[in-house]
Amino acid sequence: MAYYPFTEQQALDYIRALPELVDGAAELTCREIGDGNLNLVFRISGGRFRTGSGETVSGVIVKQALPHLRVLDSWPLTLHRAEVEHMALLRQKAACPERVPDVYHFNKELALIVMQDLNDYVILRKGLISRTGYPHAADHIGRFLAATLFACSDLGMDPGGKKRLAAAFVNPELCKISEDLIFTDPFHDARLNRYNEYIEPEVRAVWQDRALKLEAAQLKQKFMTEAQALLHGDLHTGSIMVNERETKVIDPEFAFFGPMGFDIGAVLGNLLLNYAAQPGYGGGREMEAYRAEVLEMFAGVWSAFERAFTTLWTNRAVEHWAELEAYRKRYVAQVFADSLGFAGCKMIRRIIGLAHVEDMERLEDAQRRAECERAAIRIGRALMLQRHRLSSMPDVIRAIQRAADAEGGTRHGNAGRAARHDALG
Ligand code: SR1
Ligand code: MG
After folding, report:
1. In angstroms, how far is the first alpha carbon of the chain from the final one?
2. Torsion of the alpha carbons at 134, 291, 265 and 189, rounded to the nearest 10
3. Which one of 58, 120, 203, 374 has the minimum C-beta count within 10 Å?
4. Rounded to whole angstroms, how far apart are CA atoms 232 and 356?
5. Which residues contact 64 (CB under 8 A, 6 or more apart)?
6. pLDDT (tens digit per residue) in 377-389
7. Which atom of ligand 1 is nearest to the CA of 355?
8. What is the DSSP-derived secondary structure letter of residue 280?
């Protein structure tokens, strides 16, 4: 069947014609709900669908790749990414079943995946914007990172199998987007850049910052050359769905073999974008308390990753040298430094580059938003430049707070900072 992008009616007709999935004729409805940069996402509900595990559910999601960016028609994109996403979902499901949505059906020609409807979850980014607490999210995300990154690395697989798998995950078009939009464009005056006019001086300062550009170049080199593990590849807070009890990770279409810190840094950097945006939403002490929670989540993701990764290393590593404790410590320290650097890069790209984040964009007052954006640039810069020196989480937290407060002084209050120091030890 040749590819065509679905309308809502076509998505519905397609699903109705899948007898292994649809259980009886019901009044199905379909709505296109995609709000990302790349794909169509249809929610089909009102029926009974067989999941394959003996259960039935009342709705499914149909995700279909478009042959161009959803947000920019003139930017062509490969449909192959649907196949990459499908393969990555299966790998991640095998490594960490509870954090990955169920996949019910895949059609390569139509570039579509039918999967679990997480209708009782919200996108973590939106939850953070509305200052909701997610008590288990940091632990879940950290463990997901450890399980998935370990499983498809030379620690979790035999080296031949890992190289063959890496070949199957060669994803040049999507990697090119990251190479340009994360590591290159934001650091020079590129055509696609987009930024708030009130931060023009700070943007120009980034473009002239030789030390920072050198770090961007080195992180880009790592991204392009270090096939350490199978990555999700785009693990920002819009790729994580949460509720009070559960967490799921979606959308691994950017998957490829790269440095572990790229995934960890994506989560960390996006949490910090929210942290930097919080003063823009006002709220005094309430704001400070929530900011402290976001920082706790930041620290919690890393510590859950480190704990789970160390357990996997100790019990399951297949690499000969894994028996050396000093090797493990050095390995984890390197992943930590990488994660901080990538986090910093990912913050700066969301302020200066093409694709921004809702945490900032929702702030309508451009002058108020500019203060938050400046803080995000300062934090991102500090992480990129200082990543080799920041060897413990309390040091990192202090560097973040110093950078956040550097321009606004203590205007946003110190009460939360003290509490946060206590909480983080
Ligand atoms: C124009 S595509 C921009 C971004 O959206 C995706 O989520 C990736 O982060 C990509 O860089
Ligand atoms: Mg995505």
Report:
1. 58
2. 130
3. 120
4. 19
5. 5, 6, 11, 39, 40, 41, 42, 82, 110, 111, 112
6. 999 999 999 999 9
7. 3
8. G
**Which residue do the tokens 């989480």 mark?**
393
Does ligand 1 lie within 6 Å of residue 184's CB atom? no
- d(CA 182, ligand 1 centre) in Å: 9
CA distances from 105 to 18, 161, 325 (A): 9, 26, 43
pLDDT the model gives residue 421: 31
CA 37 / ligand 1 centre spacing (Å): 6
**What is the per-residue pLDDT across 129-141, written as a single tens digit (0 to 9) for each?**
999 999 999 999 9
Give the C-alpha distances (Å, rounded to integers) separating 30 from 1, 110, 149. Answer: 22, 18, 35
d(CA 271, CA 342) in angstroms, rounded, equals 13
- 130: Cβ contacts below 8 Å, ≥ 6 apart: none
Whether ligand 1 lies within 6 angstroms of the CB of 37 is answered as: yes
Question: What is the best residue among 41, 66, 181 to mutate for testing ligand 1's pocket, by most ligand atoms within 8 Å of CB?
Answer: 181
* Residue carrying the six token digits 């993701």: 301
Atom of ligand 1 minimally distant from the CA of 349: 11
Residues with CB under 5 A from ligand 2 (ion): 234, 251
Q: In terms of DSSP bridges, do strands 247-249 and 122-123 run parallel, antiparallel, or are they unpaired?
A: unpaired
Q: In the numeric block, which tokens belong to residue 203?
A: 């943007």
With a 6 Å cutoff on the Cβ, whether 177 touches ligand 1 is yes
What pLDDT is recorded for position 1? 82
